[in-house]
Design a protein that fits this description.
This protein is mainly α. Among the domains are: 1-152, no CATH class; 377-549, Serine Threonine Protein Phosphatase 5, Tetratricopeptide repeat, CATH 1.25.40.10; 558-684, no CATH class. Helices cover 63% and strands 5% of the residues. It is built from 35 helices and eight strands. A six-stranded mixed sheet has the order 4-3-5-6-7-8, with helices on one face. Strands 1-2 form a two-stranded antiparallel ribbon. Helix 22 (384-396) packs antiparallel against helix 23. The longest helix is centred in the C-terminal third of the chain and has 17 residues, at 580-596. It starts with 14 loop residues before the first strand and ends in a 6-residue tail after the last strand. The structure holds one DNA strand.
DNA sequence: CTAGGGTTAG
């Protein structure tokens, strides 16, 4: 046994409950012996008996007389019977508790209980800690019974330990019952309950307890706030809590601060989180991780990477959590090269599951399935998330068959698929036009895996049926949904309508989307294009008017490409790129070459009211075209050109990319907000459907 | 005796 686990003060004091009805408070006041040096502690442990007797034999104060007498009597009786004395039993009990010998300690507890004697409170706390670490609920309950036996009221801190234990064992009702019967509750008792309800995601309950606590006159401390913050129900709530934290000055606590940062981020206000962060005088790496994670999760990868830089400058080391967030930022920004650099650091942390999952996702989302695959293969531990990530990654990048095969391996491995896994599987089916497989998985998900189909599953099925041209069935399915169909669902149907040229249903879906998302410019433009295609100019004008009235602005198309650790952004109508002249020239030449091979620019995709030449010109400056040309100019001849863009790729750029990939014999990967396009000389992985 | 950071879909 380690010396460190010995009690700081080895007080093997015998506590005898006076049968004369005296109060249970122990009358002896022993000056705490100074903590012995490690070597001495070992000595002390080996001779606890003599220590005990000395201690109990030197009572102070007159009130102790009777106790002492009882004490002594008990001692003599015990010795004359040649059975172990109460002193010995308590001593043994104490020793077993500190040695974490649970079975023996429990046996000793039994004897103690029978003899109506008590050990000092700290001993019980040792025993309870032992129960906690072993998950010994039953034993803990016996300890509780003992502590409350014969009308005895245990110290509040002991009850707090018990409370915490029930909470950790997920026995909230039992914790609550114990809390209810406590005569005195301190901050710790309240905070334990609040933290319990927060963890159980019973946010109302947690907040209610905060109020009850305040009513009871107990002032929250930093522990309380850092727990209760996670339970807040919205920004209003959060601001109230924040201001009371400031009033009490507890905002200087790093725990409270990181909780504030997390919660502001969670409620979509990373700027406020940054404010809280920047006000901090001294922080630690966890607070850095909080703020970096906050931006990474709020799809502001740029700021996350900025902060990561600042973190390093401030001299903090990146750990697993930091790198996970950094990878997530790379994922969002499609920064494959930076992600690769992070990978080098990931290797330092041996097999961290979450970190590996983030790495895997980064490679998938950056379109490098080779790297994703090797990462996946090298992972020793895989959980549902690893499998789901890889399945979805394969499916999104156009490898549907491989995705479905991997799903079979997953089932064979014994990992239970989750809701999200099935989304990936159905996505794979819809992507590859595997109607029957998709319907099979959709129908059997409930019976095979106990997962109720949700919105996303219906969405995949709408896509599946829609692609196959079964628009009626798709609509029927939407009506069968338990949840209200959301904009994503209608957008899926709209996509199918465009491909199969069902104008009426397209207009119907577009209107549905607009009613759900009145500020999405893309939908207005889509609707206006549909009208334009069927020459309904009045309707086009009406849509334009509605857009103007509601102040909806179209986000300019933007494409990003990473070259030499730098990100080059091309924005429609922006000529600030230093090489823009050369790029434009090269693009013109390329278009010329393509035209000779039969390329006809598809002017339907121009959204402005332009005509002829002009129309074509504006089209040729779509940001992805510029990015492709820039990639050809600045990347190695063989290298894949990887582009990320903010809007869906238009049909003309799609044809363009396909042709370029073909004549230039190089792979082009374009990731738009929801689909991946891998262009090679065999065409596009999306199968020309998106 | 009570508290903080990271991963998969759309």
């Amino acid at each position: 046994m380690k010396a460190a686990s010995l009690p700081p003060r080895l007080k093997c004091i015998l506590l005898l409950l006076p049968s004369c009805g005296q109060s249970s408070s122990f009358p002896f006041k022993l000056p705490p012996p100074p903590p012995p040096p490690p070597l001495l502690r070992l000595l002390v442990r080996s001779r606890p008996y003599s220590l005990t007797v000395t201690a109990t034999a030197t009572p102070t104060g007159s009130a102790s007389e009777s106790c002492n007498m009882l004490n002594t009597t008990e001692y003599h009786n015990a010795t004359s019977n040649s059975s172990p004395s109460s002193i010995t039993i308590i001593d043994e009990f104490t020793r077993f508790c500190y040695q974490r010998d649970l079975p023996r300690a429990m046996k000793a507890l039994d004897s103690i209980q029978n003899r109506n004697v008590w050990a000092v409170p700290v001993t019980y706390s040792e025993l309870l800690k032992c129960c906690l670490s072993r998950g010994a609920v039953h034993q803990a309950r016996l300890v509780q019974k003992h502590l409350f036996s014969r009308g005895h009221q245990p110290e509040t801190f002991l009850v707090n330990i018990l409370l915490n234990m029930y909470v950790k064992f997920n026995l909230l009702d039992e914790a609550q019952a114990l809390f209810d019967q406590m005569p005195h509750r301190n901050v710790v008792s309240w905070t334990t309950m609040i933290a319990a309800y927060t963890t159980a995601m019973l946010n109302d309950k947690a907040l209610e307890f905060l109020i009850l606590m305040l009513r009871d006159g107990i002032r929250p401390n930093m522990f309380t706030y850092s727990s209760v913050l996670r339970a807040c129900q919205g920004l209003l709530n959060l601001r109230q809590l924040h201001s009371s934290i400031i009033k009490t000055g507890l905002d200087s606590d790093v725990f409270v601060r990181s909780a504030l940062i997390d919660i502001y981020s969670k409620w979509g206000e990373p700027r406020n989180a940054l404010h809280v962060f920047d006000e901090m005088v001294t922080g630690d790496s966890i607070v850095w991780n909080s703020i970096i994670g906050g931006f990474a999760q709020n799809t502001d990868g740029d700021e996350a990477l900025n902060l990561f830089k600042r973190m390093k400058q401030a001299g903090f080391m990146a750990d697993q959590a930091t790198l996970t967030s950094v990878l997530r930022a790379c994922t969002g920004l499609a920064l494959l090269e930076l992600g690769r650099q992070v990978h080098v650091h990931v290797i330092k942390f041996k097999q961290d599951l979450i970190l590996n999952n983030a790495l895997l996702d980064m490679y998938c989302k950056c379109g490098s399935l080779e790297d994703a695959n090797s990462t996946f293969t090298r992972m020793l531990d895989k959980d549902v998330i690893s499998w789901s990530t890889m399945i979805t990654g394969l499916a999104q990048n156009g490898f549907s068959r491989a995705a479905l095969e991997l799903f079979e391996s997953m089932k064979a491995s014994g990992t239970k698929p989750s809701y999200i896994t099935i989304v990936g599987v159905l996505f794979a089916c819809s992507h590859a036009g595997l109607v029957e497989d998709g319907q099979y998985y959709f129908r059997s998900m409930k019976t095979c895996f106990g997962i109720d189909p949700g919105r996303e599953h219906y969405g995949c099925m709408v896509d599946l049926l829609g692609r196959a041209g079964k628009l009626d069935e798709a609509v029927k399915l939407i009506h069968e949904m338990k949840d209200e169909p959301d904009a994503v669902t209608w957008r899926t149907l709209l996509g199918a309508c465009r491909v199969h040229r069902n104008t009426d249903l397209a207009i119907y879906s577009a209107k549905k989307i607009l009613s759900l998302e009145p500020n999405n410019a893309g939908t207005y433009i889509l609707l206006s294009n549909i009208y334009a295609n069927s020459q309904r100019w009045e309707d086009v004008a009406e849509v334009r008017m509605a857009m103007r009235d509601r102040g909806v602005r179209k986000e300019p198309g933007c494409s990003w490409i990473e070259v030499n650790k730098q990100i080059h952004a091309f924005i429609l109508g922006d000529n600030s790129h230093p090489q823009i002249v050369a790029i434009s020239m090269k693009l013109k030449q390329l278009i010329w070459r393509l035209k000779e091979l039969g390329y006809v620019p598809q002017t339907d995709f121009v959204l402005q009211d332009l005509e002829g030449e002009q129309k074509e010109d504006s089209l040729s400056y779509h940001s992805e075209k510029l990015a492709i040309v820039f990639g050809m100019m600045s990347l190695q001849k063989e290298g894949t050109i990887r582009i990320r863009k903010n809007l869906r790729i238009c049909g003309d750029c799609h044809v363009f990319a396909k042709l370029v990939a073909n004549i230039e014999r190089r792979n082009i990967v374009i990731r738009d907000p929801i689909r991946y396009h891998h262009f090679s000389n065999e065409g596009c992985s999306c199968g020309d459907y998106w």
